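Student: I would love a firmer grasp of how sequence relates to backbone shape in proteins. Thank you; the sequence and its tokens follow:
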Amino acid sequence: MWSIRLADQTLTPVVMGAILLFRRQGVFYGNLTQLGFSQSIIKFCGVADRSAKSNQLIANMVKLVFALATILSVGAFFWGEALGKFALGNSGPLMAFWLVVYATGIAFGYLAGSAWRSELHFSKYNVVDWLNGSLIFVLCLLVFPSDGSLEDLSMTLAVGTLVSSVGFLGWFLIHKGYMSSLLKPSLAIDRKVLLFGFSRGVAAFADAGTIVIGPWLLRNDPEKSGFLIISYTLVRIAQAVVLPVAQVFALRANSKIFNTQDEEKRLVQFTLFSIVASILFCIFYYVAGWKLLRYWIPDSWQQVNEILFYIIIFTPAVCGFYALRNHVDLKYSSPINLFFLALAVGIYIAVAIGMVAIGFDSLKAATYASCAMFSLFYLYTIYFIWAFGKRRNALVQ
């Protein structure tokens, strides 16, 4: 939230929209670059498995992500112009290169966070998440000169994220004695682990797509793109609170050392609590909260409020989805979240393109498409609360 306020106060609307899209795109492609290994580490290399095989598996994951990042960097060098225009609109090859560096930093950050979380070091995981989520961007804005270029800001953000992520990942590898495994000439990963990670990685890629597809469609109009991203930030603000807690519940509910039924019950209770809290948040926004926007983003509040008037009501659905998502990922072998998110993105694209075709303004079309997409999040939440409750009742009987 503070980073958005700083961006609104220190950057022009065009630069603000461009750098916010840069960040979203970095997370989008970073999710793909890490190949879902962040989920594989939690499932197959947790605290209950400290074998040499587990050590080598983590090391091989790191090496594969590094190899993919290297390939992407070479691609950005040769086809940077095309990549820049495709991902960021009217941008050159330099922006494309920094986007690859930033995505690589995000990918390594996911690996670092999951590695520490798999060992139940949640404080270190939260620090990694906090740094890559907002703090590094805030520091960049604080030191960014008023006459600085978008390329300079992107470079600072990309390099800072990469250094932070590599530092925490290296700390884990050294602390746990994995460096010898990292130096072995092996890239072997079991097919089961690879398929599990890849399906979850694509699901995370699709998840990032739900908040990047709209701004990306508006990439040639950075101002509108920025307003839509800020609106999504407020709708999904509860995600920052819900997700860390839900991840703990999901990890415990799928662990060999905890009572999974009791932990699943606690997760459902937490989900219901978060939904009720978010409903109260929506009521507050419609009654008085919208007036506070002018104090948070004084230069952009009117445009953002026009979007939030339609989509803030989907905050409970977003809370429910992120409270349950990690548990669904770990509990089921089939990539349920991938299918769901692919459907959500597909509906968004279809609605947005259809509304533009019949004459709607591009930003208005993106707003209505967001409503259609987030409606599915309600269906997801209702179904899995019912499914987990039904399963527990069956076990009790």
Summary: Residues 90 and 220 are 6 Å apart (CA to CA). The mean pLDDT is 85.
